[in-house]
Each structure stands twice: as structure tokens, then as C-alpha cells.
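Worked example 2:
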Amino acid sequence: MRRLAVGFIFLIVSASFAGLAQAQNEQSPADLAFDGAVAAVRDKNYIAAVSTFRQLAEQSHHDAQYNLALLLDRGLGTPEDFKEAFKWGLLAKIGKIKRANKLVTSIQEKLSEQSKLAVYDDVHNFIRARVNAGNRDAIIQYAYFQASILPEPNNNEAYIWYSIAAALGLPNSIAKREEMRELILPEELEALQLQANELFVKLPKPEADKGSENAPAAEPAAPLPSSLDQTPPVSETGA
């Protein structure tokens, strides 16, 4: 991993990112847009960076969600907005961006309980909309949200969606389904399995299948190449 310091912002470039060595025509439009936003931060053009990160975040690019949360939290390129920062930070965390864990913990301390509950509703709706649009990796994320993100886990709902994910053969879903089943009362299990089967048959066609009957199932979106870390320099010595 390479780190490029820009003032007190640290530009992180993943060791797995080969985009810097590739010709531009080998990169996706999202990668190019992300690179442009990272460059904007380097040039302290935070307004442009926020605009691009926001567009990518709405498309569920998790590194962009993390970066947007950082800028919203720090009030760079936009006035401080802790509630919105918490939303994008949670979505980045759900997207398995490890750096988001610390960021989310920091942001939520600045919010009222009412504001946090409103954000959980927003995050729920964001992910569920992706499920309804046929995005398969959103199914796992929705189950994870129910089991591990909500302040009061909804184990029944998590079991339903991990069951659906397991039926689709999504990675790591069988173990999570078994884990959730252990938390379900036996008298509730039959009804939950019925719900899972009803939802399963109503699932929309996966995004990658639209327009082609023989297309493979949609794969989870690959992580974007770079992310921003705004940890103060003093904490970087032990990294």
C-alpha cells in the first residue's frame, strides 16, 4: 500500500491497484472517475472530489462511499454533515471497507439517537432498493445489515436473506445461514422458511442476466482502487 500525504489528508493507494501502470483505455469509467476525484483531493479541489465521490457512492462503489463519508465528516468540499457522513460510512462498512469501522464509530458519537435511527432507515432503503433491482451481492449486504449493523439485530430477517443467499450459492452464505438458524426459535422457523421461499421465487433477474438468458449471475462489484484516510499524522507512526 502506498500513501501520499496531502496536508493532513492521506491518499491511500492499494497495493493491488494496477491502474497506475495500465493504459487509460484499460480502466473502467468508474475507475477513471475515482482517480480524478483522488487527484482533486490532492489538488485541494474538494468540491469537485465530493461531487464525483457522491456520484460513485450512489452507484455503490464502497471506496467512494468511504471517501465521501470522510469529506462530509471533515467539512471539506461541503459543510460538515455528520448524519450524511454516518450513512455513507455505514454503507462502506457494509461493503467491507475496514477503515470504515473506525470512522463510523467516531461519527456516531456526534449524532443523536433519533438521527442515527433515521440513518439506519436510509441505509436499509438504499440496500433494499439494490436487492429489488436484482443486485445479488446486495442480498448478502442486506442480511449483514440485519444481523450486524442494526443496533438491535433482526435475526429473523437476517436468516431469511442468508437463506436466499445460500440458495443462490453466494459466498459464505451457508455458514451465516447456519449461524442465524441457531438463534431462531423452532416454532418460528417454518414461517421464516416459507417467507424465504416466497421471496426467492419473486427475486428479479440478476443485473448481469438482463438482456441475455445465458449470462452468468452478477458478481460482487470489485473494490475501487484507492481510498482516502484522514487519520492525523501522529497516529500513522505505528501503522
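The chain has two domains: 1-20+27-111, 113-220. The CA atoms of residues 58 and 78 lie 17 Å apart.
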